[in-house]
Model the fold of this input.
Amino acid sequence: MSKDFIVFGDSLSYGHELVDAPYNNVISGKISPSKFSWPALLGALNYSVPGSANDRIKRNCIHTTFTLRPKLVGISWSYPERLEFPDPSFDKIDPEQDYFNTIGHWIAGNKKPTFNNKQDIRLNNFETFVNIFYKFIYSDVFGMYNFLDNIYAVQLHLDKLNIDYFMVTPSYKTLQLNNRYVFDYQDDPINMDKIIGSVVRTCKLIDWSKFVFIDKFKGIMDIANDLNDIGKQNHPLEKTHEYYANYLKDVTI
Done:
């Protein structure tokens, strides 16, 4: 694998559920990206981490590329509804003892922090917080804004470092709100705190020529559905990764 080409993403680029990256290994913390994943088939170093929110993908990409300065980067974005929050199971006083935790769309169910005491009240509080957040506070348009904001930040960073890159999304649905593509919404220049306006304005800032889509905005999950090649935990399997790698090779390398 070449250090000149690095891919960042979640389980969809990691190769979760492929023959050498089975579901149980990943859940138990044995992290080793599949050699049959599309990044590996393209000869890239695969820095994908299962369960990553786009916040984490952005963070890992920016910090890693600043140090390693690869020639080519691939970004496999995750689902907009995944977000990062401080992990409730760690010390809130000591800045050196806190960690990020992903909440939201989790292919195998919502992630929960690990506590030494399974009856720890923090676990119940965390689950209550997540349920309240997604039921009463979170909205799809907010998730979309956060998603686009992460994309724009990474593009600014990679452009500044003069690193070539391409980006992909899980599915055409990733770019939709209420079954309408984000490109079809209109700005509201008067109500600046209206979230959809920020979605539209950020959308215009993004260089969409850096994205690789199949057909009309299709991603790896759409291919997996078309090929009927999906694992029990809803991850694309070997046939899909090979197809996707061949397609990306033709248009990116």
Summary: Confidence is low (pLDDT under 50) at residues 107-115. Residues 83-137 form one domain. The first helix runs from residue 11 to 14.
